[in-house]
Amino acid sequence: MAAPERYLMYLTGQHPRPPITPSSVSPITHVALAFMQSSLFNKKDPKPNRTDWEQGLFTTVEEARKMFAPGTKILVAIGGWGDTKGFEEATRTEEERRIWAENVAEMVGGTRADGVDIDWEYPGGNGEDYKQTPNSQKSWQIPAYPLLLSAVRTALGPSKLISAAVPGLPRDMLAFTPTTLPAILRSIDFLNIMTYDLMNRRDNITKHHTGLALSLQAVDAYLQAGLPPAKANLGFAFYVKWFKTDAANGGCAENPIGCKTVLMEDPETGADLGQSGAFSWHDKVPEELAASFERAMANGMYDRYDPSKSDDYSRGGGRGHYYWDAEENIWWTWDTPEAIKEKMRPFMLGRGLGGAFAWGLGEDGPEFKHLKALTEGLGGIGFPGSGMTNGVGRKRDEL
């Protein structure tokens, strides 16, 4: 298998500071600045201009380039969780697709970005508003999604990059099937598979949110649908997730993996009931969670259950770092540096994936130990420590 070629980091407005040490950022080949709103590109009269672009992003492409090694590709990520309105309007008609795509192309040219990352979560349904607008009313988006990507490719031309962030749960892969993928692949350079948040507030049992086994399940779903491994990036989460478990009926004391949670979202509206959450390594731990999180960090363990030996995925997928706090009935799930390194061979060598990415770079500050682990893990399978080649002799500008 060839060594992976891409190492992408999302850089976010919430945590906009990467490491200042050049050796820490030099291996990174791509950076996606998150986010510009999708609705910005629906504007017709007047069309969006440089002021709109600069106000729509937390930094400029020019400033971002100064933070990374020469030749690093800088993409502008469009969309994000809950941002669907602009995409939906853009995909309604051929004319709307053309307008949206041409506005995107003007932004890319005006900012001198190297391309865009399309972060529509999710075409076809199961987005943030899935309770208010059922999937049956969004099925038209499934064939429209590749048409939008095609319009963007036409407007950008062949030399600019187009990537897309795509769901990691098979239940959400409504627009990514053996029928639709061929059309999608004609337009995109690679997909960023979000192999994190694999447990979320829609679940009712504990799982590893970025566990190895469920991540394999996600990647294999795309490969079986026709995605070439070289066009797949594996996702890593530089943050921690927690969920409240059912103290009375959960059964967590007997087996904390796969035990019952409390109700975490409103069954009618889908609204967050405040029974779960997340925070990055850069964030201050919420005061009400501090004692529980301290116990988790001191007593967390790695689940070595191998679901490949069983047809039962109900235990939460296997192969992830976790802690169940019996004192406060809280399930903690996160990746340690060791868990990150454990994923290298199954995915990069075993599946031959073309790269890795993380959400997000600044979220791992100030120590950046998960970034270091990911870089070391990739280096151990052939991705170089220097920033100028991709492990198989090609220069960064050729990627």
Automatic annotation (TrEMBL):
Gene3D superfamilies: Glycosidases. SUPFAM superfamilies: (Trans)glycosidases. Residues 5-381 form the GH18 domain. It holds the Pfam family Glyco_hydro_18. Its EC number is 3.2.1.14. InterPro entries: Chitinase_II/V-like_cat, GH, Glyco_hydro18_cat, Glycosyl_Hydrlase_18. This is chitinase. GO terms for cellular component: extracellular region. GO terms for molecular function: chitin binding; endochitinase activity. One of its GO terms (biological process) is carbohydrate metabolic process.
